[in-house]
Amino acid sequence: MYKGMQTNWSRESVLRASTIRTASTATLGLYADLMPSPDRPFGEQTTMFRELSELGETRGVRVFVLPPGYARHRQGFSFTNDGWVKTTVPLPDVVLRRSGTFLTSHLKEAEADLSFFRKTRHLHTLPRICGNKWIVLSLFQQNPQLRNHVPETAVADTPKQVQDLLHRMKDVYVKPLTGAQGVSVYRLTENPSNIRVRYERRKVSRQTERLTQTFNPETILVDKTYAPGPSFMSFWESIDLKKCLVQETIPLPTLPGARPFDFRWLVQYVEGPLIAARVARVGGPSAVTTNIHTGGMAINALDALKQARFEDPQKLITKLDDVAISVARSLSSRYGGYAEVGVDLACKRDGSVVVFEVNPTPGRRMLRSLGTSTRQLSLEWLIEYAIKANR
């Protein structure tokens, strides 16, 4: 049994007009990796799962957490007054994959479980392949509504390919094909005599963060230069980033203090795709990334555009909305129905919108900075999705 922490979550909520307050007997399964921690059995999502469980109770939706191995043993967890209790769980009506990655020891079982959920048509999350940035961007490049919003991007398999692409584009970001939370992201800039390499190193490891209630995303900026050729290639081999994405650097707008920002749009399906949250992710003056997990801060997107003195911030919000909805519909057309997706966007000074990547299992940490109503609504819509999908 896992003890739950006390919560200030309110069981009273306000839904937008598009949602329906009706009783339901639906069941919702949250598929997530199980962590070796009595306080945070589901890592940093533990609080969110508890809140969904309590919220589901008010709507007649039973919420369970399903760990790797579920298809074999049908065991899961429910939240009670005594905390998280292990119990037998019949196959839920709707299953949402909530872990983007799994412990190596759990990966084989996770793959079997996800295959089982897909075959039984109970899985309502985009497939894990959508975590591959190259596959998703290639899909968007084929879409007439999105191809002009995708930055120049290529895949590299060797240090020489990385250097050749840098020589052509001059300033690039290099990322793992399936990375998240700003992990292993490098900015490379070609100068006349050297290659400048910048990246961030976390002060507190992510593993500590997953297993405890500690959240300290502070980073140390590493800034080095290498001579082109063997010197750079030797460095690149040392970081062990094999196949990777090389993407042209998009100059981001800045807030006072030269703090760059980009965006995370949370799109959820209730009555068609709806924008649940519009977040600006603000990095420090010398930050390589704006991610919350690498020290970025979250503010309201409209406020960021106003502070950056864009000519018509509301018009730009509408443009960002349109692109995010096009992304959601493109994914739905290719992969079928799903509950939600996080879309990472940016805007240039000329008002053009860029799509960087998508997150099939978007978290809620950054929504806390926008006030309780936005985060609460996003959870309401997950419960509403389970109700509607069960009809």
Give the distance, in angstroms, between the N- and C-terminal Cα atoms. Answer: 33 Å
In spatial order, strands of the major sheet run 6-11-7-8-9-10
**Radius of gyration from the CA trace?**
21 Å
Spatial shape: globular
Name the structural class: alpha+beta
State the major sheet.
6 strands, antiparallel
Q: Can you give the mean pLDDT?
A: 87
Helical content class: 25-40%
Please indicate the percent range of residues in DSSP E strands (runs of 2 or more). Answer: 25-35%
Low-confidence stretches: 1-23
Number of strands: 17
Could you describe the 3D structure shown?
The chain is built from 10 helices and 17 strands. By secondary structure, it is α+β, with helices and mostly antiparallel strands. The model is unreliable at 1-23 (pLDDT under 50). Among the domains are: 27-125, no CATH class; 152-249, no CATH class. Helix 1 (46-58) crosses helix 10 and helix 8 crosses helix 9. The protein has a 6-stranded antiparallel beta sheet, sandwiched between helices. Strands 12, 13, 14, 15, 16 and 17 form a 6-stranded antiparallel beta sheet that branches. It has helices at residues 46-58, 70-73, 107-119, 133-141, 159-169, 206-211, 230-238, 301-307, 313-335, 372-389; strands at 27-31, 62-66, 75-80, 83-88, 94-97, 153-156, 171-176, 186-190, 195-202, 219-226, 244-248, 254-255, 259-270, 272-282, 297-300, 340-347, 353-359.
